[in-house]
Amino acid sequence: MAAEYASHWESLAFVTSNGQAHLISTYGSLESSWALVDSLFGDKLLAMGVISSQVYDAQTQFYEQLMNDNAASYAFGLPMNDSSEIGNSVALAMVAATMTNASVRAQILSNIASYASLKSRVDIFASSYYVSSGSYISGPASPAQGALFAPMVLSLPIPSSNSTTPPTPPTSYTPEPSPAKSHTSLSVILGALFGSVAGLLVIAAVSVVFVRRRRHRAVPKNLPISSPPFLYDTVTPFIPSEDSISGSYVSLERLRSLKMERIRHAVVTSSRFESTPQPSPHESSMQPRSTATPRTATGSTTTRGTSAGGVAAGGVGSHLGQLDEGPGRNHVMTELRTEVLQLRQFMQSMNERLQVEAPPTYSE
């Protein structure tokens, strides 16, 4: 049925003009009329063979003659028909795919390439344009420009419609990678990813260690450990009164003068005791104890030492009170000298401390 329709169509549309057979644009039009028959691409694409090869050969020769005779007017390809100056890159690409002559096909594609590379064009490769000047009309960046791959599609071997065998791939066909190879590529990618992460972690750890060591070296060693001064390091001496209940606070200078007075008093008492002649045992027994000079002196000394609040004077008086006993005299003198020596050592340490430390200040 399709072959019969095609044969009837050829008898009406296929004419000869000026010795050149070609297809006219419409039925009953002038024999000189023509058009771009891009619909023949469907018969070629599906390999149906409905249109005879005579039509393809005649159209190839006719288009070649048109381009040669009108090279200046058709600088960027053939127009859509004989009465138009507008060309279409989509229709030209499909017509080029149906040409049986490779040179004619290349000439049509070359005209399309000249238009696409036109420097004066301001549009984005429009599909409709004037074939004489390449001026833009419509269809910028049209998805229909995919028809430019029509010649490439027909270059693939396609079996006829009555064949059941699958098409054989071309010689330049590259098979898809096998699953094993894809697994290998995936493992390589994962390995590179984990390796990069591990490398970054190692670099971060090394950086942290380096920064810590640098800070540790920057801190000076053997720094003196200093504590804030205590506000109550200086203690004000307290001198108790005779009743050992009440007393008063004195300064260090006052305490020092009191200590010196006690020492001088103890030394004077000791020298008096050594210079006073001691009575013989017989005379001692004849004299009453109440009139003993050392005892009176000692009593007065003890009283003065106690009133001053000193420990040294009181000790001297207590020892001198035992001088009348006779045999314990040497022992008392030894203890007295020992106590005086201890007082001197204490005063020496107090002097050294006063020279080192600043005297305290007091405010009411």
From TrEMBL:
Keywords: Membrane, Transmembrane, Transmembrane helix. Pfam families: GtaA_6_Hairpin. InterPro entries: GtaA_central. Residues 307-318 have a biased composition (Gly residues). Residues 288-306 have a biased composition (Low complexity). Residues 166-178 have a biased composition (Pro residues). This is Glutaminase A central domain-containing protein. The lineage of its organism: Eukaryota, Fungi, Dikarya, Basidiomycota, Agaricomycotina.
